[in-house]
DNA sequence: AACCTTCCCTGATGGC
DNA sequence: TGCCATCAGGGAAGGT
């Protein structure tokens, strides 16, 4: 479940490894992740160099000489660099004492759908067991990306992500706040893990209706989203299942999570057992005490025995 | 338009 | 040990 921090971690590592690398050949196995026909990749990509690698929400964009190669990792997508001259490894190994891990590379397997071969002999592998990802190709027009990402919401860490713009996107919304955070047309890049973490950081119950939130609560949420995404990037992403970076390394943010995956365990802030419910078909974790259903005012009245 | 549900897909996990 | 049911979820598609 790569979300913004995981995709950003991959982007940074990958850019360092493949900037200016020239694509010489490629192998694409027919698969539903290809929104562009693999044959078209075959006839357009060879000869082009990777000039830049950018991110929009959870999308990665490789800027080639004449095209944009757009990649979304879905649930289980992995992008890794492999040098056929070096030994492959299997599984994930972390040092039992130091926690350190060496960069590792993995050989293609039946879930590897795309292999880009670079001039220097290295490969870029796209692997995706559940095939929820997507690979697309755009001509490199000046406004191609704006058009392609036209429905995407605010980009965190960009100039457009202001409190005012955030409030405006939430205006007149009556849905529950958790599904709203997952809606990529509101804020781009937040997924299930960081939505739960942001709601905890902002002390907001996931089932609260957006239009019932106080303004200061919305502002707290605006800041909390940035805060949890920033921390996710700082720790190299959250590796709960399939996520690895471009060098095959796991992140460590899973150890920093306050509520996600911690159902039954004590809340770090108050000791109450973290609860897990289902909201919009998504597992949702929260602290019943730190994130009261009725907001802070109701909680205070209840604690005082007035309700 | 907003909101909600269903579906896609496969590996891991747990019960029997 | 094997078998089957269940769960994980990003986003497209469909219904209201």
Task: Reconstruct the topology from this structure.
Elements: H1 4-18, E1 23-28, H2 38-44, E2 50-56, E3 59-64, E4 67-72, E5 77-82, E6 112-118, E7 123-128, E8 134-139, H3 144-148, H4 163-170, H5 177-182, H6 192-201, H7 215-234, E9 275-279, E10 282-286, H8 295-303
Antiparallel strand pairs: 1-6, 2-3, 3-4, 4-8, 5-7, 6-7, 9-10
Helix pairs in contact: 1-7, 4-7, 6-7
The structure holds a DNA duplex (16 and 16 nucleotides).
Protein traits:
307 residues; alpha+beta; 4-stranded antiparallel sheet; 8 helices; 20% strand; DNA-binding
Report on the structure:
Helix 4 crosses helix 7 and helix 6 packs across helix 7 (215-234). The strands form three sheets. The protein has a four-stranded antiparallel sheet. A four-stranded antiparallel sheet has the order 2-3-4-8, covered by helices on one side. The longest helix is centred in the C-terminal third of the chain and has 20 residues, at 215-234. It contains eight helices and ten strands. The protein has 307 residues and is of the alpha+beta class.
Number of strands: 10
Structural class: alpha+beta
Mean pLDDT across all residues, rounded? 91
Calculate Rg over CA atoms: 21 Å
Helix content: 25-40%
Number of H- or I-type helical stretches = 8
Q: Major β-sheet, in short?
A: 4 strands, antiparallel
